[in-house]
Amino acid sequence: MSQSALHTPDTLRSRSEALAGTLPALMADAQHLAATVLLGTHGRKRAGTGDEFWQYRPAEAGDAMRSIDWRRSARSDGHFLRQTEWQAAQSVMLGVDDAASMTFTGAKSRPSKLRRAQTLAMAVGILAVHGGERVGLTHLNEPPRGGRGQLMRMAQALMDGHEAGDYGVPRPKVMPMGSRAVFFSDFLGDPAPIEEVLGRAADRGVKGALVQVLDPDEEAFPYDGRTVFESMSGAIRFETLKAKSLREEYLGRLAERKDRLDRATRRTGWRFTIHHTDQPAEPTLLWLYRALEKVRA
Protein backbone atom coordinates (compact mmCIF):
# COMPACT_ATOMS: atom_id res chain seq x y z
CA MET A 1 0.00 0.00 0.00
CA SER A 2 1.39 3.42 -0.91
CA GLN A 3 1.98 6.17 1.63
CA SER A 4 -0.72 8.35 0.02
CA ALA A 5 -3.27 5.56 0.24
CA LEU A 6 -2.75 5.38 3.99
CA HIS A 7 -4.17 8.89 4.34
CA THR A 8 -7.23 8.74 2.10
CA PRO A 9 -10.53 9.87 3.67
CA ASP A 10 -11.95 6.35 3.42
CA THR A 11 -8.98 4.87 5.27
CA LEU A 12 -9.09 7.51 7.99
CA ARG A 13 -12.83 7.10 8.37
CA SER A 14 -12.63 3.31 8.70
CA ARG A 15 -9.80 3.61 11.21
CA SER A 16 -11.78 6.11 13.27
CA GLU A 17 -14.83 3.85 13.21
CA ALA A 18 -12.74 0.86 14.29
CA LEU A 19 -11.22 2.91 17.10
CA ALA A 20 -14.60 4.16 18.24
CA GLY A 21 -15.86 0.60 18.45
CA THR A 22 -12.87 -0.84 20.31
CA LEU A 23 -11.96 1.94 22.73
CA PRO A 24 -15.06 1.64 24.96
CA ALA A 25 -14.58 -2.13 25.18
CA LEU A 26 -10.94 -1.71 26.22
CA MET A 27 -11.87 0.82 28.91
CA ALA A 28 -14.72 -1.36 30.17
CA ASP A 29 -12.45 -4.41 30.42
CA ALA A 30 -9.72 -2.42 32.16
CA GLN A 31 -12.13 -0.81 34.63
CA HIS A 32 -13.67 -4.18 35.48
CA LEU A 33 -10.21 -5.68 35.96
CA ALA A 34 -9.04 -2.80 38.17
CA ALA A 35 -12.19 -3.08 40.28
CA THR A 36 -11.31 -6.65 41.25
CA VAL A 37 -8.06 -5.42 42.80
CA LEU A 38 -9.64 -2.37 44.45
CA LEU A 39 -12.25 -4.59 46.08
CA GLY A 40 -9.55 -6.88 47.41
CA THR A 41 -7.32 -4.20 48.90
CA HIS A 42 -7.73 -1.40 51.41
CA GLY A 43 -5.80 1.38 49.71
CA ARG A 44 -2.09 1.99 49.80
CA LYS A 45 -1.81 2.55 53.55
CA ARG A 46 1.88 3.39 53.50
CA ALA A 47 3.53 5.56 56.11
CA GLY A 48 4.98 8.77 54.76
CA THR A 49 4.36 12.45 54.07
CA GLY A 50 0.68 13.36 54.23
CA ASP A 51 -2.18 14.57 56.40
CA GLU A 52 -4.47 11.55 56.76
CA PHE A 53 -3.89 9.62 59.99
CA TRP A 54 -3.02 5.97 59.59
CA GLN A 55 -1.75 4.48 62.86
CA TYR A 56 0.46 4.86 65.93
CA ARG A 57 3.60 2.78 66.24
CA PRO A 58 6.05 2.35 69.14
CA ALA A 59 9.10 4.62 68.95
CA GLU A 60 12.33 2.94 67.93
CA ALA A 61 16.01 3.79 68.29
CA GLY A 62 16.89 6.50 65.79
CA ASP A 63 13.44 8.14 65.68
CA ALA A 64 13.52 11.92 66.03
CA MET A 65 12.12 13.34 69.26
CA ARG A 66 9.94 15.76 67.29
CA SER A 67 8.17 12.78 65.69
CA ILE A 68 6.85 11.46 68.99
CA ASP A 69 3.17 12.03 69.69
CA TRP A 70 3.35 13.08 73.35
CA ARG A 71 -0.41 13.07 73.88
CA ARG A 72 -0.69 9.42 72.83
CA SER A 73 2.51 8.52 74.69
CA ALA A 74 1.14 10.03 77.91
CA ARG A 75 -1.56 7.34 77.98
CA SER A 76 0.97 4.52 78.22
CA ASP A 77 4.40 3.60 79.53
CA GLY A 78 6.12 3.95 76.15
CA HIS A 79 6.61 6.50 73.40
CA PHE A 80 4.57 6.39 70.19
CA LEU A 81 4.85 8.00 66.77
CA ARG A 82 1.85 9.20 64.78
CA GLN A 83 2.07 7.93 61.20
CA THR A 84 0.20 9.40 58.24
CA GLU A 85 -0.70 7.66 55.00
CA TRP A 86 1.74 8.03 52.10
CA GLN A 87 0.18 10.65 49.85
CA ALA A 88 2.91 12.16 47.66
CA ALA A 89 1.92 11.78 44.02
CA GLN A 90 4.33 9.71 41.97
CA SER A 91 4.49 8.78 38.32
CA VAL A 92 3.83 5.39 36.76
CA MET A 93 4.98 5.03 33.15
CA LEU A 94 3.55 2.25 30.97
CA GLY A 95 5.06 0.78 27.83
CA VAL A 96 3.02 -1.54 25.59
CA ASP A 97 4.70 -3.33 22.69
CA ASP A 98 2.30 -3.29 19.72
CA ALA A 99 4.61 -4.75 17.06
CA ALA A 100 3.26 -7.42 14.71
CA SER A 101 4.22 -10.37 16.95
CA MET A 102 1.92 -9.06 19.67
CA THR A 103 -1.16 -9.49 17.47
CA PHE A 104 -0.79 -13.29 17.58
CA THR A 105 -3.35 -15.58 19.16
CA GLY A 106 -3.39 -19.34 18.80
CA ALA A 107 -7.17 -19.58 19.18
CA LYS A 108 -10.16 -17.33 18.55
CA SER A 109 -11.40 -18.10 22.06
CA ARG A 110 -8.58 -16.09 23.67
CA PRO A 111 -7.39 -12.53 23.21
CA SER A 112 -4.30 -11.53 21.29
CA LYS A 113 -1.19 -10.76 23.31
CA LEU A 114 -1.62 -7.10 22.39
CA ARG A 115 -5.19 -6.85 23.63
CA ARG A 116 -4.30 -8.48 26.94
CA ALA A 117 -1.28 -6.18 27.34
CA GLN A 118 -3.42 -3.11 26.60
CA THR A 119 -6.03 -4.20 29.13
CA LEU A 120 -3.46 -4.83 31.86
CA ALA A 121 -1.71 -1.53 31.16
CA MET A 122 -4.93 0.46 31.36
CA ALA A 123 -5.95 -1.36 34.56
CA VAL A 124 -2.61 -0.39 36.12
CA GLY A 125 -3.25 3.19 35.00
CA ILE A 126 -6.70 3.19 36.57
CA LEU A 127 -5.31 1.91 39.87
CA ALA A 128 -2.58 4.55 39.83
CA VAL A 129 -5.01 7.39 39.16
CA HIS A 130 -7.33 6.04 41.84
CA GLY A 131 -4.37 6.28 44.24
CA GLY A 132 -3.76 9.94 43.34
CA GLU A 133 -0.78 9.28 41.10
CA ARG A 134 0.18 10.41 37.61
CA VAL A 135 0.37 8.03 34.66
CA GLY A 136 1.73 8.17 31.15
CA LEU A 137 2.89 6.13 28.17
CA THR A 138 6.61 5.76 27.58
CA HIS A 139 6.39 6.15 23.79
CA LEU A 140 4.76 9.59 23.93
CA ASN A 141 6.53 12.93 24.31
CA GLU A 142 4.08 13.93 27.04
CA PRO A 143 4.58 14.12 30.82
CA PRO A 144 2.50 11.85 33.05
CA ARG A 145 -0.75 13.31 34.32
CA GLY A 146 -3.57 12.31 36.62
CA GLY A 147 -7.33 12.17 36.14
CA ARG A 148 -9.84 10.31 34.02
CA GLY A 149 -9.11 12.51 31.01
CA GLN A 150 -5.52 11.23 31.00
CA LEU A 151 -6.77 7.64 31.07
CA MET A 152 -8.89 8.27 27.99
CA ARG A 153 -5.95 9.89 26.18
CA MET A 154 -3.78 6.92 27.02
CA ALA A 155 -6.36 4.40 25.83
CA GLN A 156 -6.73 6.19 22.52
CA ALA A 157 -2.95 6.40 22.10
CA LEU A 158 -2.68 2.67 22.71
CA MET A 159 -5.30 1.98 20.07
CA ASP A 160 -3.55 4.27 17.57
CA GLY A 161 -0.41 2.14 17.62
CA HIS A 162 3.19 3.20 17.12
CA GLU A 163 5.53 0.22 16.67
CA ALA A 164 6.56 -1.18 13.27
CA GLY A 165 8.20 -4.48 12.40
CA ASP A 166 7.81 -8.03 13.64
CA TYR A 167 9.16 -7.43 17.15
CA GLY A 168 9.02 -4.37 19.35
CA VAL A 169 12.05 -2.46 20.59
CA PRO A 170 11.57 -0.32 23.72
CA ARG A 171 12.38 3.33 23.08
CA PRO A 172 11.03 5.20 26.12
CA LYS A 173 10.83 8.95 25.53
CA VAL A 174 9.64 9.94 29.00
CA MET A 175 11.01 8.35 32.19
CA PRO A 176 10.75 10.84 35.09
CA MET A 177 13.49 10.60 37.70
CA GLY A 178 12.46 8.26 40.51
CA SER A 179 9.27 7.11 38.80
CA ARG A 180 8.06 3.54 38.36
CA ALA A 181 7.47 1.81 35.03
CA VAL A 182 5.97 -1.34 33.54
CA PHE A 183 6.79 -2.76 30.11
CA PHE A 184 4.41 -5.25 28.49
CA SER A 185 5.76 -7.34 25.60
CA ASP A 186 6.34 -10.88 24.42
CA PHE A 187 10.08 -10.01 24.48
CA LEU A 188 10.71 -12.41 21.60
CA GLY A 189 12.93 -10.00 19.70
CA ASP A 190 16.49 -8.94 20.48
CA PRO A 191 16.80 -8.74 24.30
CA ALA A 192 19.73 -6.29 24.20
CA PRO A 193 17.55 -3.14 23.85
CA ILE A 194 15.46 -3.98 26.91
CA GLU A 195 18.63 -4.64 28.92
CA GLU A 196 19.90 -1.22 27.82
CA VAL A 197 16.62 0.42 28.81
CA LEU A 198 16.71 -1.22 32.25
CA GLY A 199 20.26 0.04 32.75
CA ARG A 200 19.32 3.60 31.84
CA ALA A 201 16.25 3.41 34.04
CA ALA A 202 18.31 2.26 37.01
CA ASP A 203 20.65 5.23 36.50
CA ARG A 204 17.62 7.53 36.84
CA GLY A 205 16.29 5.78 39.92
CA VAL A 206 13.41 4.28 37.93
CA LYS A 207 12.22 0.84 39.03
CA GLY A 208 9.36 -1.31 37.89
CA ALA A 209 8.42 -4.56 36.22
CA LEU A 210 8.56 -6.48 32.96
CA VAL A 211 5.50 -8.51 32.00
CA GLN A 212 6.17 -11.11 29.31
CA VAL A 213 2.84 -11.79 27.61
CA LEU A 214 2.74 -15.13 25.77
CA ASP A 215 0.12 -17.21 24.02
CA PRO A 216 0.00 -20.79 25.38
CA ASP A 217 0.89 -22.13 21.93
CA GLU A 218 4.17 -20.26 22.20
CA GLU A 219 4.87 -22.14 25.43
CA ALA A 220 3.73 -25.61 24.36
CA PHE A 221 4.84 -25.59 20.67
CA PRO A 222 2.00 -27.99 19.70
CA TYR A 223 3.15 -28.49 16.09
CA ASP A 224 3.91 -31.71 14.26
CA GLY A 225 4.60 -32.82 10.70
CA ARG A 226 4.69 -30.38 7.83
CA THR A 227 4.36 -26.86 9.18
CA VAL A 228 4.93 -23.41 7.76
CA PHE A 229 6.08 -20.85 10.32
CA GLU A 230 5.54 -17.25 9.29
CA SER A 231 5.98 -14.02 11.20
CA MET A 232 2.88 -11.87 11.66
CA SER A 233 4.15 -9.34 9.13
CA GLY A 234 5.08 -12.04 6.63
CA ALA A 235 8.70 -10.87 6.54
CA ILE A 236 10.00 -14.18 7.94
CA ARG A 237 8.91 -17.57 6.60
CA PHE A 238 10.19 -21.06 7.39
CA GLU A 239 8.82 -24.44 6.29
CA THR A 240 9.66 -27.82 7.82
CA LEU A 241 8.43 -31.38 7.37
CA LYS A 242 9.25 -32.33 10.94
CA ALA A 243 8.02 -29.55 13.19
CA LYS A 244 8.04 -31.80 16.26
CA SER A 245 11.81 -32.25 15.97
CA LEU A 246 12.23 -28.50 16.55
CA ARG A 247 10.25 -28.46 19.78
CA GLU A 248 13.09 -29.25 22.19
CA GLU A 249 15.42 -26.64 20.71
CA TYR A 250 12.66 -24.03 20.63
CA LEU A 251 11.67 -24.62 24.26
CA GLY A 252 15.32 -24.46 25.29
CA ARG A 253 15.78 -21.09 23.60
CA LEU A 254 12.58 -19.77 25.14
CA ALA A 255 13.78 -20.84 28.60
CA GLU A 256 17.10 -19.08 27.98
CA ARG A 257 15.26 -15.92 26.99
CA LYS A 258 13.16 -15.97 30.17
CA ASP A 259 16.25 -16.54 32.30
CA ARG A 260 18.07 -13.65 30.61
CA LEU A 261 15.16 -11.30 31.26
CA ASP A 262 14.91 -12.44 34.87
CA ARG A 263 18.63 -11.84 35.45
CA ALA A 264 18.44 -8.41 33.82
CA THR A 265 15.62 -7.33 36.12
CA ARG A 266 17.38 -8.66 39.20
CA ARG A 267 20.53 -6.69 38.36
CA THR A 268 18.59 -3.44 38.09
CA GLY A 269 16.16 -3.84 40.98
CA TRP A 270 13.18 -4.54 38.71
CA ARG A 271 10.68 -7.42 38.82
CA PHE A 272 9.78 -9.97 36.13
CA THR A 273 6.70 -12.10 35.54
CA ILE A 274 5.10 -14.11 32.73
CA HIS A 275 1.44 -13.89 31.77
CA HIS A 276 -0.38 -16.34 29.49
CA THR A 277 -3.37 -15.16 27.51
CA ASP A 278 -5.44 -18.25 28.31
CA GLN A 279 -5.26 -17.38 32.02
CA PRO A 280 -7.30 -14.77 33.92
CA ALA A 281 -5.72 -11.31 34.04
CA GLU A 282 -6.59 -10.65 37.70
CA PRO A 283 -3.64 -12.52 39.30
CA THR A 284 -1.13 -10.70 37.10
CA LEU A 285 -2.67 -7.31 37.88
CA LEU A 286 -2.60 -8.06 41.60
CA TRP A 287 1.06 -9.13 41.26
CA LEU A 288 1.82 -5.83 39.51
CA TYR A 289 -0.03 -3.84 42.15
CA ARG A 290 2.08 -5.40 44.89
CA ALA A 291 5.30 -5.33 42.87
CA LEU A 292 5.01 -1.59 42.24
CA GLU A 293 4.42 -1.02 45.96
CA LYS A 294 7.59 -2.95 46.79
CA VAL A 295 9.86 -1.21 44.27
CA ARG A 296 8.63 2.15 45.59
CA ALA A 297 9.74 1.29 49.12
The CATH topology of the largest domain turns out to be Rossmann fold
**Which stretches are low in confidence, meaning pLDDT under 50 for 5 or more residues running?**
1-20, 42-51, 85-89
Query: Helical content, roughly?
Result: 40-55%
Number of domains: 2
Which of globular, elongated, flat, extended, rod-shaped describes the shape? elongated
What is the CATH architecture descriptor of the largest domain?
A: 3-Layer(aba) Sandwich
Structural class: alpha/beta
Please identify the top-level CATH class of the largest domain. Alpha Beta
Distance between the termini: 50 Å
Beta-strand residue fraction: 15-25%
Pfam families: DUF58
Protein name: DUF58 domain-containing protein
Domain DUF58: 55-256
InterPro entries: DUF58 (IPR002881)
Briefly characterize the structure.
This protein has 297 residues and is α/β, with parallel strands linked by helices.
